[in-house]
Specification:
The chain has 412 residues and is of the alpha+beta class. It has helices spanning 3-17, 21-61, 84-92, 126-132, 156-162, 197-202, 208-215, 235-245, 255-258, 260-298, 300-308, 313-349, 357-362, 375-392, 394-401, 405-409; strands spanning 64-68, 97-111, 116-124, 139-142, 151-155, 169-175, 181-192, 203-207, 224-229, 250-254, 351-352, 368-369. It has a six-stranded mixed barrel with strand order 2-3-8-5-7-6, surrounded by four helices. The protein has a two-stranded antiparallel sheet with strand order 11-12.
Length: 412
């Protein structure tokens, strides 16, 4: 069949749609609402999942981490590496790297005059750390760490547990590589509040030199280099290049290796959305089948005449299916057009879910959700819904081509 023949059938199919305006508008409205809801639901949920991952990356993890071989599997305090500053400069020279921060990490105990709690003590170079993570931007009281001095930065939730305020002293204790207990008194200089409740309860930041001295580590030691990239998609390529250039005593991990569950959750969400589209599509398909079947039954005499004057079964099948496909495309276009202004507003201002802020903090999500539009969302909306509409016409079209011309024409 020629292109001209198909376009001619499409024009006839378009006119046929509006022969019963009420029925067409009812079915069209269901498609429009379905597309509108799906696009906003998909973009908002995708935004929430991506925010969970992005928050973890910018809170502490970074895009790439470098440790001594085996540290990730067994993060013991004695598993440190030397020449941290030279290694930091080497990694920072890579073109896709935005910032690199050395860290000393140890699980320890933080005690005040009133209470105590287990924490992850993180010794950081304050200036370098502020370029990799956004802890410095999350302060709700006090100031950020200075490069030296017995200072500590803790979460607001941890401060409430320890019953301390700015200026109060706390004692940090942790096991040293030699088996002794290292301890030091720190003064609380700042409190932070992030989107993660667990992070605020368990993390404490101190200057890296103080952490080395407390643990009895060499002055150039570190447990981790956290690397922030310009683009997260470059992480795998950088890992392969660094692993080949660095000694075998070091391991290079991407965020996929460090937090595989969060990455898996994002990938699982994409698969789950296909199921959501399928559920909405099944709901739409019954309405489309009903409308198209009614249209076919009303026009049986017309189909009989068309068959009698020589229209082939294939052209008749295409005519009926084109009506449904055009209905799906029109509904998708209108639903898409209506959803875009709402998406643009939410992308700028976000969806404020402050009433659920405590529950969202347990999942590491902020109280304001920003939708995220990707090519997958566009592809799903413009492919799945029109495809469902076309599938809904298959049975009515099959009924139409099995009309006997003589019997159909008796009803004329």
């Amino acid at each position: 069949m020629s292109f001209r023949g198909v376009t001619g059938l499409a024009r006839v199919a378009w006119r046929n749609l509006w022969r019963n305006r009420r029925r067409t508008l009812i079915v069209l409205s269901s498609v429009v609402v379905g597309v509108f809801v799906l696009v906003l639901f998909d973009t908002l949920n995708l935004g929430m999942v991506e925010q969970m991952l992005d928050n973890q990356l910018r809170l502490h993890i970074g895009h790439v981490q470098i440790h001594r071989q085996g540290y990730h599997a067994n993060p013991a305090v004695e598993h440190f590496f030397r020449k941290a500053e030279a290694l930091r400069q080497q990694v920072a020279a890579e073109p896709e790297v935005r910032a690199v921060a050395p860290r000393v990490l140890v699980h320890g105990l933080l005690s005040s005059a009133y209470n105590n709690g287990g924490v992850q003590l993180v010794g950081v170079a304050p200036e370098a750390e502020s370029l990799v993570t956004f802890i410095a931007e999350q302060l709700v009281a006090g100031r950020y760490l200075a490069a030296e001095g017995p200072e500590i930065l803790i979460g607001e939730r941890l401060a409430r547990k320890l019953e301390v305020r700015l200026g109060d002293r706390v004692v940090a204790m942790a096991a040293r590589p030699d088996g002794q207990i290292g301890s030091e008194v720190f003064r609380v200089v700042g409190l932070f509040r992030t989107v993660s409740a667990d992070f605020d309860r368990t993390m404490a930041f101190i200057p890296i030199d103080r952490a080395r001295a407390m643990l009895g580590l060499p002055p150039d030691a570190a447990h981790e280099l956290a690397v922030l990239l310009d683009d997260a998609r470059q992480a795998d390529a950088l890992k392969a290049r660094l692993q080949a250039a660095l000694p075998d005593t070091l391991e290079v991990l991407t965020y996929r290796d460090v937090v595989p569950l969060l990455v898996m959750q994002r990938d699982l969400y994409a698969e789950m959305m296909y199921l959501i589209y399928l559920i909405i599509g099944v709901a739409l398909i019954f309405g489309i089948i009903n409308a198209m079947l009614m249209a076919v039954l009303e026009r049986l005499p017309e189909f009989g005449v068309l068959r009698a004057i020589g229209m082939s079964e294939g052209r008749l099948f295409l005519l009926v299916s084109l009506e449904s496909l055009l209905l799906g495309l029109l509904g998708t276009a209108i639903g898409w057009a209506l959803s875009l202004p709402v998406y643009a507003y939410l992308a700028r201002h976000g969806l404020d879910l402050a009433v659920f802020s405590e529950a969202l903090a347990a999942f590491g999500v902020g109280s304001v959700i920003y939708p995220r539009l990707t090519l997958r969302v566009v592809w799903n909306a413009w492919l799945i819904i029109p495809l469902v509409a076309w599938l809904g016409a298959l049975y009515p079209a099959w009924r139409a081509i099995h009309v006997e011309p003589v019997e159909a024409m008796r009803a004329v």
